[in-house]
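Bumping my old thread because nobody answered last time. Still need a sequence for this structure:
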């Protein structure tokens, strides 16, 4: 009787864990962006890491990789040098039409200090709490960082990524998703 009870309890426990993992994964998976979220992004004017106000619309008509990050987020900080190298790799390719943008969910002083220290090759902007809401509207229902979206030239969402990026997968996605659409 005791072995049978333990067996049943084990099966129920494993089943419960599997259901919990499935539900948790569904709740944290990126969702489709809300109507107008990309247009809202492109209409923003934000201060960059040097404090200069810039319109994001200057990159309209290009493929965009928008990375939401913070200086206090360890996975964000770990992936930024890799993202910087990847942006440089694509910008060295004369046929590339992609621009990376970093949206810092942090204070202007922290972003400026971080940019000076790491010499990131793409623009970093101070998005503050407005950036958190914008990332949610772009599909980041869990609100976690880093969160990254790849946007097409026509302003539609091609792909979104929650958590630390796999740079090789990202490189392949950029090549595959942008190559035939120039």
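Sorry it took so long. Here it is:
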């Amino acid at each position: 009787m005791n072995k049978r009870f333990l067996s049943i309890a084990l099966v129920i426990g494993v089943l419960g864990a599997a259901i919990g993992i499935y539900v948790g994964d569904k709740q944290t998976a990126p969702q489709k962006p809300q109507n107008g979220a990309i247009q809202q992004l492109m209409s923003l004017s934000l201060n960059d890491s040097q404090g200069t106000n810039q319109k994001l619309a200057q990159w309209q008509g290009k493929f965009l990789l928008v990375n939401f990050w913070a200086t206090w987020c360890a996975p964000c900080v770990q992936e930024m040098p890799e993202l910087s190298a990847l942006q440089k790799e694509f910008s060295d390719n004369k046929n590339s039409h992609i621009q990376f943008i970093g949206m810092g969910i942090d204070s202007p002083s922290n972003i400026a200090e971080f940019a000076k220290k790491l010499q990131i090759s793409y623009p970093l902007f101070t998005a503050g709490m407005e950036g958190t809401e914008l990332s949610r509207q772009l599909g980041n229902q869990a609100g976690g960082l880093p969160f990254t979206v790849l946007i097409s030239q026509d302003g539609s969402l091609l792909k979104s990524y929650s958590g630390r990026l796999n740079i090789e997968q990202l490189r392949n996605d950029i090549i595959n998703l942008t190559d035939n659409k120039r």
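The mean pLDDT is 87. Let me know if any region looks off to you.
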